[in-house]
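Q: Given only this backbone (753 positions), what sequence would you predict?
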C-alpha cells in the first residue's frame, strides 16, 4: 500500500493508544472486572413487559382501576382442580375458601376474589371440575415477580382434595423471563465456541482469532454494567440482553476482523509494527468509527417510541456498539503493539499446507503459490459488472418477491402462546381459555368517571352489549363517582374481534367520561403509538445515514444507493417473518405455536437492528472502494478492488454474526426465536446477495456519476469528510498501478480473510 512507507509520523490518537500498551490492557482488565461486579444480577432487575404506551388511554384506565377497584384487574389466577369432584362439593369449597383467605392475607396482594366467594359464572369451568381464585399483586413487574417467587411454593401443588396451578399475566411474564435467561446462557454456550472455531478458520492464526472474542466479551460485560445502572432510573426489558450478546459478539468480530486484517496487510507490505498500527487506525479505524456511528443511530431511533420494550433495545444497543468500537480502537491496537508479527502465530493452516504437495493447484486451477487473496471476489465483481442490468434487475426483483408475504402481516401482542407448550403458566392459560366461559382475567374493562344515574348506567350497558363481538357485559361496579364495566369479547383476548370492539366502545357516546383498558385495548394503543412515531424513527435513520455516508464518500448518489439497497436487503427477513411465524410454516420444525399475527414491536426492532448491521457491512465495502477510487480514479477498478479486499471479510463477519443470532434463535420463546432467526437471515442476505451482486451492478450502471457532488458539498466534504485511505487522488499523480494490487507472498499468508 502506497502510504506504508510514508514514514513513522503518528497522529495524536495513535500515540495515545500505543504509548503504554501494557498499561492500557491492565486498565481494561480492571474495568472489565469491575463491570462483572457492577452488572451482576442485572437480569433480576429487568421486566418482561414494556409493550404498553405509558401515555395511552388504556394505561390511564389500568392505573385508575388498580387504584379504585383492585379486584377488577387480577394479574394472578389460581386454577383449582377439584380432583374429580364438583367445585360445589362442601369439602372442596371449604378448602378453597381457606386458600382464598390465606392469599388475601399475603403482603402485597389485593383484590382477592374467587368463585366460592362471588359465585361468578366466569370463574367456574363449564364442566364444574375447576374454578378460579383471582388476585392482584401490587407494584411494578419486578416487585410482582419477587412476590410471586415468595408465594408460589406456598400455593402451587396439592392442598387436601385440591390441586392448584398458577396462571395469569404475572405468572406468564415471570416464566417467560426465566426461560429467556436460561436460553440466553445456552445461546452463549453455543455461540462462543462456534465463533472461535470460525475465527480460527478465517484468520488461520489462533492468536488472531482470540482477539475478536476478547473484545466481544469486554463489550458484553460492559453493557451489562451500563444496563444495571439504567435499571436504577427506568424500566428495561429482559429481551435487551439477547441484543447485548448478539451485537457484542457480532460487532466486536466485525471491527476486529477489519482492523486485524488491515494490520496484517501493512505488516506484509513491510511496515514496522508501530507504523502498521498507525496506518491501520487512520484507515480501518476511521471506518470502524463511521460504522459504529451508523449502527448506533439506527438503534437510537427506537428512543422515539414510548414503549420501554423498544427503548430498552436502544439503551443496550447504543452501549454495546460504543463499547465494541472503543475496545476495537483502544484495546485492540494496544494488543497488536504487543503482539506485532506474533499476531500470525499458531497458524493452523500450516497443517493443510503440509498435506498439499508443492505446486499443487487449488480448485480454481491456480497454484497455491500464485493465487491472489480475494481473486474469486474480484472475478465475481467483473462478471456482475459485465452483466450489470441483468444482475441488478434479477436481484432486486428476487428480493421484492421474497418480501411480498409481509403485505399480509397482521400485528398482535405477546401472550402465553409465546411460551413452549410445556410451560406451566401456558398450560393453565389454555385450560382457562378452553374450559371457562368468556375470558376470565382477559376481558375488557370500561372505567367510568363522573356522577351518573342508574338509568344512564343501564342505557350505556345495553348499548355496549349490543356491539358486534361483545358476548356479555357485567357491572357496573360503582364506588362514589367511579365505576367500571367488564366486557367479554369473542375470540382470543387480543384477536381482531376484540380490537374492533375496543374501538367501537370508545366511539360509543356516554353521559360520563369513559376509558377502555384490557389486553386488546393495550394492543390497539400500542399499534397507534408505533404508527404515530414510526415516520420519525425512519426519518432519523435515513437522514443521519445519508449524512454519514456522504461524509465517508463525498458523493451525493452513494448515500441514496446505500439507503435503498439496505432497505431491499431487509425484504427477505420481513417476508420470512410473516411466512414462518405468522402463517405457521415450519412451526413444527422450529418448535413454536403460530398465533396468526406477529408482535407489533418486533418488526420495528428488527428493522432498526438489521438496517444498522447492513450499514455496518456497507461502510466496510464503500470505504475500500472510495480508497481505491481516490488513488487511481478508475471507477470499475475501484469497485473490483473493494469487493476483492472486503468480500471474504464481510461474508466471514456475516456468517459469524448469523451463528450468534441462530444461537439466540434457539430460544423457546417465540419472539426471541423470531428476532434471532430473522436477523440472521437479513445479515446473510445482505452480505451474500446485496454486497456481492446488487452493489457492484448498481455502481456499474451509475458509472463515474456515482462520485458526483455539487461544488458546495464537495468543498464541505473536503473540509469535514473522513475516509479510509490518505493518498492523494490520481489527478495529483498518485494513480495506482493495477499491477500493484498483486500481493506479496507474505501477504498471501497473512491476509487471506
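A: Predicted residues:
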Amino acid at each position: 500500500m502506497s502510504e506504508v512507507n510514508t514514514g513513522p509520523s503518528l497522529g495524536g490518537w495513535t500515540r495515545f493508544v500505543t504509548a503504554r500498551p501494557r498499561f492500557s490492557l491492565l486498565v481494561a482488565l480492571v474495568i472489565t472486572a469491575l463491570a462483572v461486579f457492577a452488572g451482576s444480577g442485572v437480569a433480576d432487575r429487568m421486566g418482561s413487559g414494556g409493550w404498553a404506551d405509558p401515555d395511552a388511554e388504556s394505561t390511564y384506565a389500568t392505573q385508575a382501576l388498580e387504584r379504585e377497584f383492585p379486584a377488577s384487574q387480577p394479574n394472578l389466577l389460581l386454577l383449582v382442580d377439584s380432583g374429580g369432584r364438583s367445585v360445589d362439593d362442601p369439602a372442596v369449597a371449604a378448602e378453597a375458601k381457606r386458600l382464598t383467605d390465606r392469599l388475601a392475607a399475603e403482603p402485597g396482594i389485593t383484590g382477592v376474589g374467587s368463585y366460592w366467594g362471588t359465585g361468578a359464572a366466569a370463574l367456574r369451568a363449564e364442566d364444574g371440575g375447576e374454578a378460579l381464585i383471582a388476585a392482584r399483586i401490587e407494584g411494578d413487574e419486578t416487585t410482582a415477580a419477587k412476590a410471586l417467587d415468595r408465594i408460589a411454593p406456598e400455593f402451587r401443588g396439592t392442598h387436601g382434595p385440591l390441586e392448584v396451578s398458577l396462571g395469569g399475566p404475572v405468572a406468564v411474564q415471570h416464566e417467560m423471563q426465566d426461560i429467556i435467561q436460561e436460553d440466553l446462557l445456552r445461546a452463549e454456550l453455543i455461540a462462543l465456541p462456534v465463533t472461535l472455531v470460525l475465527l480460527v478458520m478465517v484468520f488461520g492464526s489462533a492468536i488472531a482469532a482470540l482477539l475478536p472474542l476478547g473484545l466481544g466479551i469486554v463489550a458484553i460485560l460492559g453493557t451489562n454494567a451500563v444496563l444495571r445502572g439504567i435499571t436504577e432510573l427506568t424500566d428495561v426489558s429482559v429481551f435487551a440482553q439477547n441484543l447485548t450478546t448478539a451485537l457484542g459478539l457480532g460487532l466486536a468480530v466485525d471491527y476486529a476482523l477489519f482492523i486485524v486484517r488491515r494490520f496484517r496487510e501493512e505488516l506484509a507490505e513491510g511496515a514496522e509494527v508501530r507504523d502498521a498500527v498507525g496506518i491501520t487506525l487512520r484507515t480501518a479505524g476511521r471506518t470502524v468509527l463511521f460504522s459504529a456511528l451508523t449502527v448506533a443511530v439506527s438503534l437510537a431511533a427506537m428512543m422515539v417510541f414510548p414503549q420501554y420494550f423498544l427503548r430498552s433495545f436502544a439503551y443496550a444497543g447504543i452501549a454495546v456498539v460504543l463499547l465494541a468500537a472503543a475496545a476495537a480502537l483502544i484495546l485492540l491496537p494496544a494488543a497488536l503493539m504487543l503482539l506485532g508479527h506474533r499476531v500470525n502465530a499458531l497458524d493452523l493452516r500450516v497443517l493443510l499446507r503440509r498435506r498439499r504437495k508443492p505446486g499443487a493447484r487449488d480448485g480454481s486451477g491456480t497454484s497455491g503459490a500464485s493465487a491472489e487473496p480475494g481473486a474469486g471476489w474480484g472475478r465475481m465483481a467483473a462478471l456482475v459488472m459485465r452483466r450489470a442490468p441483468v444482475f441488478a434487475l434479477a436481484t432486486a426483483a428476487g428480493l421484492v418477491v421474497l418480501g411480498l408475504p409481509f403485505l399480509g402481516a397482521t400485528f398482535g401482542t405477546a401472550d402465553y402462546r409465546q411460551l413452549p407448550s410445556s410451560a406451566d403458566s401456558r398450560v393453565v392459560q389454555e385450560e382457562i381459555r378452553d374450559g371457562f366461559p368468556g375470558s376470565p382475567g382477559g376481558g375488557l374493562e370500561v372505567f367510568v368517571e363522573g356522577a351518573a344515574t342508574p338509568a344512564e348506567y343501564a342505557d350505556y350497558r345495553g348499548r355496549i352489549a349490543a356491539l358486534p363481538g361483545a358476548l356479555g357485559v357485567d357491572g357496573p361496579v360503582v364506588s362514589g363517582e367511579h365505576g367500571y364495566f367488564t366486557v367479554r369479547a369473542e375470540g382470543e383476548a387480543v384477536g381482531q374481534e376484540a380490537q374492533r370492539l375496543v374501538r367501537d366502545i370508545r366511539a360509543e357516546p356516554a353521559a360520563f367520561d369513559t376509558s377502555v383498558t384490557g389486553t386488546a385495548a393495550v394492543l390497539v394503543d400500542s399499534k397507534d403509538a408505533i404508527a404515530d412515531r414510526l415516520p420519525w424513527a425512519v426519518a432519523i435513520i435515513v437522514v443521519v445515514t445519508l449524512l454519514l455516508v456522504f461524509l465517508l464518500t463525498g458523493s451525493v448518489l452513494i448515500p441514496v444507493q446505500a439507503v435503498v439497497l439496505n432497505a431491499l436487503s431487509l425484504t427477505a427477513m420481513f417476508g420470512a417473518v410473516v411466512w414462518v411465524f405468522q402463517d405457521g410454516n415450519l412451526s413444527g420444525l422450529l418448535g413454536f405455536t403460530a398465533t396468526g399475527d406477529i408482535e407489533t414491536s418486533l418488526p420495528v426492532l428488527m428493522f432498526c437492528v438489521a438496517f444498522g448491521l447492513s450499514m455496518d457491512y456497507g461502510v466496510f465495502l464503500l470505504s475500500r472502494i472510495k480508497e481505491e477510487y481516490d488513488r487511481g480514479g478508475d471507477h470499475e477498478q475501484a469497485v473490483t478492488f473493494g469487493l476483492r479486499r472486503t468480500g471474504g471479510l464481510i461474508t466471514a463477519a456475516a456468517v459469524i454474526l448469523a451463528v450468534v443470532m441462530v444461537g439466540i434463535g434457539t430460544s423457546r420463546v417465540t419472539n426471541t426465536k423470531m428476532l434471532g432467526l430473522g436477523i440472521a437471515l437479513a445479515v446473510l442476505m445482505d452480505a451474500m446477495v446485496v454486497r456481492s451482486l446488487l452493489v457492484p451492478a448498481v455502481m456499474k450502471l451509475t458509472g463515474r456519476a456515482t462520485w458526483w457532488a455539487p461544488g458546495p458539498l464537495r468543498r464541505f466534504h473536503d473540509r469535514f469528510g473522513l475516509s479510509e485511505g490518505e493518498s492523494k487522488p490520481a489527478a495529483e499523480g498518485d494513480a495506482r498501478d493495477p499491477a500493484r494490487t498483486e500481493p506479496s507472498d507474505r501477504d498471501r499468508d497473512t491476509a487471506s480473510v
